[in-house]
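hiii, so i know i said id send this last week but things got crazy w the move. better late than never?? heres the sequnce for the chain we talked about at the cafe, plus the structure i predicted for it. fair warning i was half asleep when i ran it
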Amino acid sequence: MELKGKNIGLAVTGSFCTFSKIEQEIRHLVEAGANVYPIFSSNVQTTDSRFGNTGEYIRHISDLTGRQPILKIEEAEPIGPQGYLDILLIAPCTGNTLAKLASGITDTPVLMAAKAHLRNEKPLVISISTNDALGMNFKNIGLLFHAKHIYFVPFSQDNPKKKPNSMIARTELIEETLKAALEERQIQPVIYGAP
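okay and structure toks below
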């Protein structure tokens, strides 16, 4: 499955430490000829961190994709009835977003985009980045792993000694995961050893 010409929703949540890795993968998707539609959570829009100014990041990603970002819940809702996305990628997907998604909560543009997209029975890919993947969010990973049309970018513990519950997606596998998900397949293995 090629990504050229595919309409890919890119939903970004607030795991700020992974933004540079995600940007690199967005660049690969654009170079592969995909049409990337950026969507940003409310926290990304309003929270600066030691990793940089999020307003600048939003502008940079929008310029890279050549599309205006979706910034409001009401802007994300038409993804459902218009059905213009072939696939939606949440990258990075925080533990907070993961938990809300598993509980059916739609209180951010990213979660509304996910709900709207899934109603069309099209694939949703999750690229996790959470300090409690093996803690309180372990159950949510399990719930979503067995949900229809949801796929995971393979992930691993990023610092087993200092943060034993933390896991992060292998972002270099985003493109391969998207291709497989478009064919309704979960790439394997899902869980890797520490990088």
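btw The radius of gyration is 15 Å. thought thatd interest u
miss u guys!!
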